[in-house]
Amino acid sequence: MHTNQSLFNLNATNAFFDEKGPLQLSETAYQYIGGILKNASGFAAITNPLVNSYKRLVPGYEAPVNLFFSVGNRSAAVRIPMYACTPTKQRIEFRPPDATCNVYLALAAQLMAGLDGILNETDPTEAGFGPFDTNVFAWPEKERKQIKGLPASLGEALGALADDHGFLLTGGVMDEEFIQDWIEYKMTHEHLEVRDRPHPYEMALYFDV
To answer: What residues does 69 pair with on adjacent strands?
Structure first.
């Protein structure tokens, strides 16, 4: 469920558009991208809330598992749609979420992450988030390891949320009780319940061995 995002000023002008900026993106847009990528692991358990969500986010394919931004790289978590470079349509696209999420919570989490980037003036390039427009899977292994990735499972995502959720509490948008309840329920009733039971595919692998 790719989510296209932009912010508009009170005078109805697109805060993400700058005709003279790199890729026609404003400084505000880049800071928003920085916030999204810096906090993506922390809110992954909200945008990708099921055990099954991480079956799609597998490294080595075109899944958007890599925390960087790009114009043309399909494995990038954030892409810049170049067909939308106009004052009204300029935007960013965050690609990891899936449609199993609660869309209200998922959009709120992404917005809070992006605003955190603006408030802290996070430069995505200085933070090591690109832009990278080459095939990162063709890079030498040492260079490729420098790119941060999303959590590989719901359990990892819940751990990241436990460690990094201060940006979600700003302004009382979410509260600590909600975050802790979300982590406890998802960990106890979903991640651990699936982890502690045989998968049906194990029958196909081992039943006749």
So the answer is: 78
